[in-house]
């Protein structure tokens, strides 16, 4: 054992059926920022992401494309311009990538399903209910909105078939106790209220966990014809990826329980009810926290194939730059609530924060250091941070990325003002003010260095450039202003 503190963070595993859009990128970038932040703090980080590759939706999409499911999946997951390429482009520094079609995961899920069955947590019955095909979700009549799927608004249909059920109904009290005894388990607070009032208080139902109407899933090995419900298959990725019920990996003891699952708000219910209930059924330790973030929306509607309003992260990254995009996603919107994405907001952020504030400060400060032949070490730096460092850390610890970034940008603004207040060009004219001038330059460069450190999890490429400018004499514009008509 290294004795190093560990930090295990996950994103949801993505459905490869639809083209990924900027909304999907949101969670991966946020998790990446957190992973980089914790690594910077010396934690031994496990950042897990991957793809959720089973289910009727994939089976259908592959068929429509004239491919086998795995051909279809390989192209979208590991093919050119696919999911792993997108994460590479966005600098998403995951430590492990799981595909639920990986052999080790498949056999582990079969063992897990059997263990749940052997413990009496799963039983065989008949399923009759409302099913949303695209969402692969069962709903009760009461949960439907205008008779349609409450998640995507599409038609649901009646389904009846022999199926296995998980006794979710038995866990309501324990889940409520979990929320009460561990208020940090589900965040933000609003999500907890929603889970209680929409799902737990109306009465938790047993949940159908096997299907016989399609084949593209993990077979229940003791009952041919049944495949494991995608959410059981998907949720356990968080443990199989570490070696639970398999030998492909061996770090479950080191990283489990998970420090935080980042998930979009519509899948909070799976992560904060079904997931802990299944873990309780197997007497396994529960994750420490689930954070349900908001959606990026376009004119109020969730982005996605169904509504057609997809915003392509490749196009955005190429147009504006990866770091500008990463910064924008976390600076513009509070993580816990929905944010309306517009190009205008993106351009304004880039111009005001990155070009005018950060970029200007760096170029003005270095230009003066060059002109007056002074370095960071020539003077005594003043602290322009006040309590902003502590505030930044506190905000990062509670995933308040927007507030953490404001803390840093407040310091950068302060440093820009400091230039105007101290007027180094006036000091430079007077030889007796040389020490004072050296102090000013030192303050500016030290402030830039310290801010770069705090910005590194958000904009790793940009801060690498800043360090090159500070330490290696490199020069250049960090963020050109984007002209708007
Ligand atoms: N496969 C499941 C997750 C299983 S986790 C055990 C799934 N996949 S998904 O590809 O549909 O969505 C992945 C994540 O992207 C979800 O957390 C979802 O909320 C998020 N987003 C999809 N569209 C989004 C926005 N427009 N904005 C923010 N997040 C969005 O769900």
Please tag this protein with its features.
four-stranded antiparallel sheet, alpha/beta, binds 5'-O-[(L-methionyl)-sulphamoyl]adenosine, 15 strands, Isoleucyl-tRNA Synthetase, Domain 1, six-stranded parallel sheet, about 475 residues
Describe what you observe in this structure:
By secondary structure, the chain is an alpha/beta fold. It has a domain at 343-472: Orthogonal Bundle (Isoleucyl-tRNA Synthetase, Domain 1), CATH 1.10.730. Helix content is 47%, strand content 13%. It contains 19 helices and 15 strands. The strands form 4 sheets. It has a 6-stranded parallel sheet with strand order 3-2-1-11-12-7, with helices on both faces. Strands 5-4-6-8 form a 4-stranded antiparallel sheet. Strand 1 (6-10), helix 1 (22-40) and strand 2 form a beta-alpha-beta unit. Helix 2 (56-64) packs across helix 3 (69-78), helix 14 packs parallel to helix 16 (401-422) and helix 16 packs antiparallel against helix 18 (434-455). The chain is elongated, with a radius of gyration of 26 Å. The relative contact order is 0.11. The protein binds 5'-O-[(L-methionyl)-sulphamoyl]adenosine (MSP).
Topology overview:
Layout: E1 6-10, H1 22-40, E2 44-51, H2 56-64, H3 69-78, H4 83-89, E3 96-99, H5 103-118, E4 122-132, E5 137-139, E6 157-166, H6 172-181, E7 186-187, H7 189-200, E8 207-208, E9 210-211, E10 227-228, H8 230-235, H9 237-240, H10 252-255, E11 260-264, H11 268-281, E12 290-293, E13 296-298, E14 301-302, H12 313-320, H13 322-332, E15 339-340, H14 343-371, H15 388-397, H16 401-422, H17 424-427, H18 434-455, H19 460-472
Parallel strand pairs: 1-2, 1-11, 2-3, 7-12, 11-12, 13-15
Antiparallel strand pairs: 4-5, 4-6, 6-8, 9-10, 13-14
Helix pairs in contact: 2-3, 12-13, 13-14, 14-16, 14-18, 15-16, 16-18, 18-19
Residues 12-15, 23-24, 26-27, 52, 234-235, 237, 263-264, 266-267, 295-296, 302-304 line the site of 5'-O-[(L-methionyl)-sulphamoyl]adenosine.
